[in-house]
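User: Hi! Is it possible to get a structure for several chains at once, not just one? Here's what I have:
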Amino acid sequence: MTTDFLTPFERLLERFGPQHWWPGETPFEVVVGAMLTQNTAWGNVEKAIDRLKAADTLNCRAILTLADAELADLIRPAGYFNVKTKRLKALCQFLVERGVAETPEALAGQDTLPGLRHDLLAVHGIGEETADSILLYALNLPGFVVDAYTHRIFGRLGLLAGTESYAAIKALFEAKLPADVSLYNEYHALIVRLAKDYCRPRPRCAGCPLHPICPTASI
DNA sequence: ACCCAGGGTCATA
DNA sequence: TATGACCATGGG
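Assistant: Yes, the chains can be modeled jointly so their relative placement is included. Here is the combined structure:
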């Protein structure tokens, strides 16, 4: 039932308040951040984005013009810099081909959500979570973002078996929750916030806002 | 010294 | 289709 999936959200929101995601000044910055943050701490991504801004290269034209070695050096703090250099260029190439290099948010008017998601997944370096992050946080479209924490936390809550695929979990949340962009936005951000505070360096139960509804010892 | 971040690709079976 | 190696910096 719907309340099973809304109750954790309510408890998280009550504890942590609105998270104001995505942290980024423009949709283009959000898209770049979504790619750079793959398996990477956000603090390191901020450093990379700051370096791009300082070099006046946080735009498609500059990113596509820079030599690989130069771009890699600029984004070095974000890690995987050689991999992400290729991915950033593929992403910018895609935006240019769509004619939205300066306004990625305009993608939203070009196709349906499933159509856009399909095309994003075809871009080198964009997988399911990155695609959904772009759809939700840059295009303001209602695609629920699933991450490893969603998997783990809702498994602990007994709402997932723990073996479901990304697609299955996404479909479940979208079926159990109203298709509300603000709700999806806040929910995923709060899950990441919970993980930051209660899953590291060691999972702990004391003080966890989900403890009262969590049947196991820790998140 | 060790663990892991707001993942994804590619080679292999 | 499903694992496993690989990518790399920086903070706890």
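Residues 158 and 215 of chain A are 7 Å apart (CA to CA). Chain A has a mean pLDDT of 95.

User: Great, thank you!
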